[in-house]
Amino acid sequence: MSNDLTSIIRKHALKNALDFGKANIGSVVGKVIAEMPTCKSDMKTTMQNINEIVNEVNKMTKDKIESELKNYSFIEKPKEEKKGFDIQNAEMGEVITRFPPEPSGYPHIGHAKAAFLDYEIAKQFNGKFILRFDDTNPEKEEQKFVEAIKEGLVWLGIKWDAETYTSDNIESIYAHCSGLIARGYAYICTCKQEQISELRTSMKECSCRNKSINEQEQTWDTMIQGKVKEGQAILRFKGDMKSLNTVMRDPTLARIITKKHYRQGTKYKVWPSYDLAVVVMDALESITHPARTKEYELRDELYYALCVALGFKRPNLIGFSRLEIKNAPISKRLLKPLVEEGKVDGWDDPRLPTLAGLKRRGVLPEAIRTFVLSFGLSKVESEPTWERLLVENKKLLDPVAKHYFFVPDPIELSTEHKNTVSYRIKGEERKAKINGKIYISKSDFKNLTKDEVFALKDLVFVKFDGKKLIEVKQNEIPEKKFQWVSASDSLKCEVWIPHDLLENGEYNKNSLEIAKGYCESACANIKEGEMIQFERFGFCRLDKKTKGKLYFVYSC
Predict the structure, then answer these.
(1) Is 263 contained in some domain?
(2) Core-most of 177, 294, 298, 387, by most CB within 10 Å?
């Protein structure tokens, strides 16, 4: 069996085992034949070799499989890229979309999907894209989140044609509320919250619904003047209390919140609900194709009912599925305690799916764009693993990232070399002073047998005689090639390796692995934030430099 075929079988067996727990012979056969069709000329031998390698791989630990897989690369067949989105009632130059985040938290991968969809639809039709901050809850929103969202979008390469704030349009929203009351579409409810919930569950109307319009208008005026206390009254839509869609059972349109607003201060005391604000703002900004996640589907009926009640043109709502990465929560409810308890290193921890976390992990904006747009406008719920995103990142990094040597968990060995040596990495010449000592990783050293010849990568062939490394002259290239660095010409190095933050829904205390060792001295020229590849280890981002030590984050 040729070395090429052995390598092809082995890499697909390792990949299949990692993906599914154990390698499946049938699956591996298909992959091997697709990559090396000539192996079909002797299928008996090919199958025998596949059986042997699959059985060997299935006895390996997951850590060993992951470690060995780093030595292989996978070339995917290019997929035919779809030309844009199939959007109903979209005319060139007339489409207006909006991305309306609430500034109550840091942006994450789910925001990236929504923003890219809105942005790309507008671009496809030579239209307009609006960044609108849905800031109508003074209890949650802060200016720092506004800035974080804007910074995140700029980093992703998303450009908006206009920037608006719902809170700047409260007077217009009040006017529309008054119109709804005057036309009998809305009423002021002064019932206790418990009673409202009970009546909605039993599909019964409350007595407030039948008060005169004049009385409703007077109460509304006192509310917006700040003369009614929080919790004493709300504005409700006259929906259908018998509706099977609970959203339509007289939903809240506005409520009293007295907390100071980050942007408007104490100017307003009555704040519209999302359901009302989004309809009014979409109309004010002439949005033609508002997009939102599938979780709002039941609220579509209310959206259109409000359009009718307010006399607005009905836009073309677009629905799509939410996006979360498996075992990487985007919920503030789950993330905030982890940050506050110090279980993660802030909101930009590389284990988090926040945009800041993705950036720190070295995930490129173009990889994120390709990843999120690959789901399109499908409403099928998805929870991909990190791997699907990181594969896209590898494709972008592989042709451009500079290569360096890194030795994790090092052991020191004596060598005959006691001078300056030259070596080449990916065509780039490097020099290192060797004063009789080098580092190789402990895991590599453990795999050696006595007097076995191996390669110090890109330098020389050697064997270990029990005391030191001795240079060997031979034409045959050894099977084993090890990274090395000079013990006297290297830098201390630490690499953070992120793993799944959650395990069975709980915080995974082993979600961050730290590899410590030495990297070649040429790494001193790497800039903070730069992406590089440590050979036989992976792509990493230089997180920070300190005197005598470099800190990296492993990406993929």
Answers:
(1) no
(2) 177
E strand or H helix at 263, and its extent? none
Domain range spanning residue 11? Answer: 3-69
For residue 451, give the 3-state DSSP assignment: coil
Chain segment 50-68, per-residue pLDDT in tens: 989 999 989 988 878 888 8
Residue 182 has pLDDT above 90, yes or no: yes
Query: Would you say 245 and 303 are in contact if contact means Cβ atoms under 8 Å apart?
Result: no
What is the dihedral angle through the alpha carbons of 100, 325, 530, 523, rounded to the nearest 10 degrees? 160
Tokens of 76: 């995917």
**Any domain includes 44:** yes
For 15, the token pair is: 């990949």
- Residue 125 and residue 147: Cα distance in Å, rounded? 28
Residue 31 included in any domain: yes
Instruction: Determine the Cα–Cα distance for residues 327 and 338; give it in Å rounded to an integer.
Output: 14
* 470-509 as b/e: b if 16+ CB within 10 A: eeeeeeeeeeebbbbbbbebbbebbbbbbeebbeeeeeee
User: For the chain, what is the domain count?
Assistant: 1
DSSP 8-state code for residue 518: E
Quick: pLDDT tens for 226-248: 999 999 999 999 999 999 999 99
First-to-last CA distance in the chain?
A: 31
Please check whether residue 494 lies inside any domain of the structure: no
